[in-house]
Amino acid sequence: MLETWLTRELRIEVPILGAPMGGRAGGELTGEVSKAGGLGLLGAARYATPQWVAEEAAVAREIGGRFGVGLMTWALDDDDTLLDAALAEEPALVSLSFGDPAAYVPRVHAAGIPVVSQVNTLDDLRVAERAGVDLVIAQGGEAGGHTGRIGTLPLLQELLDATDLPVVAAGGIGTGRGLAAVIAAGAEGALIGTALLASPETIGPGYARDRVVEAGSADTVYTSVFDQARSQPWPSRWGGRAIANEFTEAWHGAEGSEETLAAAYDPADPDLGVVYAGEAVGLVHSARPAGEVVRHIAADAERLLRRFA
């Protein structure tokens, strides 16, 4: 078995976290990741409700026992109701990412729960350290959904040299080779998202799973047009990596008002809706159960690390 700080402190079997993907990571996906030995995180996006958190947490708990919850810090600054809802479910881990978590870390720690933050730059790391988080995730620009611009490997190396906090890697990790690589570099494990997007346990439109299987690693685009089309007020420093389609071909880099983009956007149409996915999408070739994906990645990583140990 692969043993790292992550497995010891979170009492999990394999050093894998399931990404808290808004609109994709509900209770079933989260629970299956935990059941397979990792720790799944619910994606409590800005538009989620306390009722949704409670219902999906119940599903995750029934399937896999322990689970975590991921929250967008910049959204909590306007309304922290979802943090209260998350803490009420007694998760094993709370992710406070995309913004300064300092105002919220003490509340999570008071509940006896560790805090993780995804960071995209060295400056982000310093903000997270000052806030008192317990571990950080080096989220590279290869990652799906909202992320930064620095590649995973350069960012991971920079953070490992700059902090004594445990570091987990995210972005572009879709097989055991990726997990083995980041552990060999010094990471305590990986957060995976794109590798799970074709799994039947994801929530969201069915066409999203098909698009993930069909797409190659060169078929994504880093863009803000989907946020604009859906009136999602993400801070401008974070774009989102998505599978390119007719909508991005027409509007990415073009001039268009939010009203124009909203009129052109259609969440029911795979050519005009959003499927956030990272560059690891080229490693997803079929719709496999989430638990199978997690177990396979962990087993392959262990085999590779033993081979070179």
TrEMBL record:
<dbReference type="GO" id="GO:0016491">
    <property type="term" value="F:oxidoreductase activity"/>
</dbReference>
<protein>
    <submittedName>
        <fullName>NAD(P)H-dependent flavin oxidoreductase</fullName>
        <ecNumber>1.13.12.-</ecNumber>
    </submittedName>
</protein>
<dbReference type="InterPro" id="IPR013785">
    <property type="entry name" value="Aldolase_TIM"/>
</dbReference>
<keyword id="KW-0288">FMN</keyword>
<keyword id="KW-0560">Oxidoreductase</keyword>
<dbReference type="InterPro" id="IPR004136">
    <property type="entry name" value="NMO"/>
</dbReference>
<dbReference type="Pfam" id="PF03060">
    <property type="entry name" value="NMO"/>
</dbReference>
<keyword id="KW-0285">Flavoprotein</keyword>
